[in-house]
Design brief:
The chain is an alpha+beta fold. It is 35% helix and 22% strand. Helix 1 packs across helix 24, helix 18 crosses helix 19 and helix 21 runs antiparallel to helix 22. It binds one RNA strand through helix 7, helix 10, strand 19, strand 20 and strand 32.
Length: 864
RNA sequence: GCCCGGGUGGUGGAAUUGGUAGACACGCAGGACUUAAAAUCCUGUGGAUAGUAAUAUCUGUACGGGUUCAACUCCCGUCCCGGGUACCA
């Protein structure tokens, strides 16, 4: 054993050992309990950042911990390789997205290997490979035949200057990020998957996902947003045409004072033909992107169409407005407005001088002032004819029934969840396997012609997808009639690939099918780990996809991920400069020098390169687009992978977001050096005998007790709570105790040997390289990788006395030592006898005494 | 706007079921070792007051209220920060 800790050498040797022994190769074995541990695969952006290090270290720690519990562990890794950044790089640097992406993968793979992550690399996959997306295309054509896939028009962000579709990220303050042109909404035909057909199951199954954080389940519930409501049919005066709206508050129907329709609604279009100002308003409404956050925060505007609607119950004539916040395609594209009982309607009515008609009054009959705001709670109906006096709940049923009888409405369950639009007008994605034939219409590509391979040798001569102009790609023959036909040139949303990769890892070499029986050995994933930013979209799509695969007979389970750990983001400051045309250029934290105030907060910053000021942005998740990722490479080069892993795990519990700072890395490194030295000095002094518990001295017993208490705590922290930071802290305390323990006797050394062995075993999942070496040094023939997790011995943890706190009126006044088996009476007597406590009881009447065994005694006295 | 989180010393964080706030670590200060430095080791470290000191008292978990014998923890309200918001992944 080396005297000093040389991480580079330790890590090189250990990794060579793993490589040589194929230590992480996962093999299906029906006789062993399996554990499939998966961390969300990365987008190959170029280099790892600290968020990756955190994500993959957590996964590796859990994998290694489970392995020490005797499980047959699968931990794979792959690449979410399609996506927008590759196209941006292609446009900027004139390099094909495939080339750029594969180079990034190669570099990032070496970085992951350097971190010592125990992956079964034989299962590696990249979603941009035809062998992968082949099966996604295959499934899509199956779903088309099942009626779960359809085409409809839907709005996109359109840049009229670049003549291209923009992602929401490419729209900055309503303008194109490249040319600063105001973005427009434009309707184009796109493919959709019927996720709403699974809405009930996706919602109801959340109740059974007990291994998921409640927070994530709540977010998904709200996102799916099942609500009961009523379709209400108004009619347009004069023409008598129906105008359907949906409401979750039919009890307020008698309070409707106007209707509002989307600018794209046929009623609005008709009014536009008649009135120039209406046409201008509609044109105005389209000058905004499609993002919900933008639509919901923009100024609410409307215009009167001049048309009137007839109320289905009262027959009143109500104005029909066009409103910029009503969206075509969500629901009916038209809403009924009840200013008295909906805050947005109230504000709109006030702005345009529309009447406010109260029809609900609070149950407790308190006064409501509708001049101040809308009253949005449920209550009792007034001014509602035959329905007056009913509660909101009663009126819901009564009004729905009434409308149904009159054929003017019916009850309906709706979802906030919308069908999944999977078409992208981009190049770097999996081609949608559909053919458009003039004669036969849409025809799916037959199985024998799959995969539809994306041409990789392309040049970007503009910003548009090159395959849209590539006849070689899109010209084809119709599989049905044999005539000339065109391929779909749109590609899939990249969420398609990430929705089933977890399943493909069970058999990535399968050339004949999407999945095989290995899937049912490994699935579902026992532990999934990834950023909280994926709480809704990715995790919901993956759940949906899993059910789709189940329903075509590929898997048996209903849900893909049994337990979910959502790690908090690693966030970092952003720095940018703004040009005259509002374009922002972001600079990495490594290229910037921050000036801090006396409290350590950054107040200004300059670019190191030129010394000129840059602006401070928000502190955000590390990302390519904001250029605020911190590359772990320097850290690893300087201190080694174990220090990097230990530091990131010690910095905070995994679910908490973490503002990046490398202050404290030294501490992690110091700890490993200390551990190495203590083990070195211990083994240099010779071997150790077996512990004889009966003959131990008090000090020996105390150290041994702390060892076993630490094992117990760390087992809970690492196996159940996932609070690796507190497990590490407990091990640090244990090591502090060992260095204070000065006893060279045989039994003294035996106790130290046991403590050091436990320390190495507990740390093995976190710092596997140093643990591998130290385990050998402590005299074990088997590698630590094959060692079992240590067991806490109850007999070693027995305590004779415990310290408990004594409070008077809830304030701490003293501490007492009492026998650990003392009863309440004994604890109370001891507490009352404590000197400082007696001072506070002096001359006061004791009202009661609360005893919490093993914790606290609180004496409640009268008076001040 | 809406949905979901978070806010504790100079810093990262601990307090697991309502029961001793600040474990562990960083930083800082002082000391030991050294010709010196690095490394290492030891001691102290929320704020205030009193005391030579041991120690004691008051105060303190974003802010304002409340429940309770007892609140970082539960409830109501406010502010600030982060994530998502369906084409960033």
């Amino acid at each position: 054993m080396q005297e000093s800790y040389l991480p580079e050498q330790v890590e090189r040797d250990t990794q060579a050992y793993w490589e040589q022994h194929q230590s992480f190769r996962a093999v299906e074995d029906a006789t062993k309990e399996k554990f499939y541990c998966l961390a969300m695969f990365p987008y190959p952006s170029g280099r790892l950042h600290m968020g990756h290090v955190r994500n993959y270290t957590i996964g590796d720690v859990i994998s290694r911990y489970q392995r020490m519990q005797g499980k047959n562990v699968l931990q794979p890794m792959g690449w979410d390789a399609f996506g927008l950044p590759a196209e941006n790089a292609a446009i900027q640097n004139n390099v094909p997205p495939a080339t750029w992406t594969r180079a990034n993968i190669d570099y990032m793979r070496t970085q992951l290997k350097r971190l010592g992550l125990g992956y079964d690399w034989s299962r590696e996959l990249a979603t941009c490979n035809p062998e992968y997306y082949h099966w996604e295309q295959w499934l899509f054509t199956r779903l088309y035949k099942k009626g779960l896939v359809y085409k409809k028009t839907s709005p996109v962000n359109w840049c009229p200057h670049d003549m291209t579709v923009l992602a929401n990220e490419q729209v900055v303050d309503g303008r194109c990020w490249r040319c600063d042109t105001t973005v427009e909404r434009k309707d184009i035909p796109q493919w959709f998957m019927k996720i709403t057909a699974y809405a009930d199951e996706l919602l109801d199954e959340l109740d059974n996902l007990s291994g998921w954080p409640e927070q994530v389940r709540t977010m998904q519930r709200n996102w799916i947003g099942r609500s009961a409501g009523v379709d209400v049919v108004f009619t347009i005066a004069h023409s008598g045409e129906p105008l359907k709206v949906f409401t979750t508050r039919p009890d307020t129907l008698l309070g409707v004072t106007y209707l509002a329709v989307a600018p794209e609604h046929p009623v609005a279009q008709r009014a536009a033909k008649k009135y120039a100002n209406v046409a201008a308003f509609i044109h105005d409404c389209a000058q905004v992107g499609t993002a919900e956050a933008v639509v919901e925060t923009m100024e609410k505007k409307g215009i009167d169409t001049g048309l009137l609607a007839v109320h289905p119950i009262t027959g009143d004539h109500l104005p029909i407005f066009i409103a910029n916040f009503v969206l075509m395609g969500y629901g009916e594209g038209a809403v009924m407005s009840v200013p008295a009982h909906d805050q947005r309607d109230w504000e709109f009515a006030r702005q345009y001088g529309l009447p406010v008609r109260q029809v609900i009054t609070p149950i407790d009959a308190t006064q409501v002032d509708l001049r101040v705001r809308a009253f949005t709670d449920k209550g009792v109906l007034i001014h509602s004819g035959a329905f007056s006096g009913m509660t909101s709940a009663q009126a819901f049923e009564a009004i729905a029934t009434h409308l149904q009888k009159q054929h003017k409405g019916s009850k309906r369950t709706t979802y906030r969840l919308r069908d999944w639009g999977v078409s992208r007008q981009r190049y770097w994605g999996a081609p949608i396997p559909m053919i458009n034939c003039k004669k036969c219409g849409v025809v799916p590509v037959p199985d024998a012609q799959l995969p539809v391979v994306l041409p990789e040798d392309v040049k970007f001569d503009g910003v548009a997808s090159p395959i849209k102009k590539m006849a070689k790609f899109y010209k084809t023959t119709c599989p049905q009639c044999g005539g000339a036909a065109q391929r779909e040139t749109d590609t899939f949303d990249t969420f398609m690939e990430s929705s089933w990769y977890f399943a493909r890892f069970t058999g990535p070499d399968n050339q004949r099918g999407m999945l095989d029986k290995r899937a049912d050995y490994w699935l579902p994933v026992d532990q999934y780990i990834g950023g909280i930013e994926h709480a809704i979209l990715h995790l919901l799509y993956a759940r949906f996809y899993h059910k789709l695969m189940r329903d075509v007979g590929l898997v048996r389970s209903a849900e893909p991920f049994t337990r979910l750990l959502t790690q908090g983001m690693v966030v970092a400051p952003t720095f940018y400069r703004e040009t005259m045309d509002n374009k922002k250029t972001y600079f990495g934290p490594a290229d910037v020098h921050e000036n801090c105030d006396e409290r350590g907060r950054a107040v200004s910053a300059v670019l190191k390169r030129d010394g000129d000021a840059v602006r401070l942005g928000n502190i955000e998740k590390m990302s390519k687009s904001k250029n605020n990722g911190v590359d772990p490479q320097q850290l690893i080069n300087e201190y080694g992978a174990d220090t990097a892993r230990l530091f990131i795990m010690f910095a905070a519990p995994p679910e908490q977001s973490l503002e990046w700072s490398d202050a404290g890395v030294e501490g992690a490194f110091r700890f490993l050096k200390r551990l190495w030295r203590i083990v070195y000095e211990h083994v240099q002094a010779g071997s150790a005998v077996a512990i004889q518990p009966a003959v131990l001295t008090d000090k020996q017993r105390i150290l041994r007790r702390q060892t076993h208490e630490t094992i117990r705590k760390c087992t809970d922290d690492m196996g159940r709570r996932f609070t690796f930071n507190t497990a590490i802290a407990a091990v640090m305390e244990l090591l502090n105790a060992v260095s204070k323990f000065d006893d060279d006797s045989d039994q003294g050394r035996a106790v130290v040997r046991e403590t050091l062995a436990a320390t190495v075993l507990i740390l093995a999942p976190i710092v596997p390289h140093i643990a591998h070496q130290l385990w050998q040094a402590l005299g074990h023939d088997q590698p630590v990788l094959q060692a079992a997790w240590p067991l806490a011995d109850d007999a070693a943890m027995v305590r004779d006395t415990v310290e408990i706190a004594v409070q008077v009126n809830g304030k701490l006044r003293g501490r007492i030592q009492i026998a650990s088996d003392a009863d309440r009476k004994q604890a109370e007597t001891a507490a009352l006898a404590e000197e400082n406590v007696k001072r506070f009881l002096d001359g006061k009447a004791i009202i009661k005494v609360i005893v919490v065994p093993g914790k606290i005694v609180n004496i409640v006295v009268a008076g001040p």
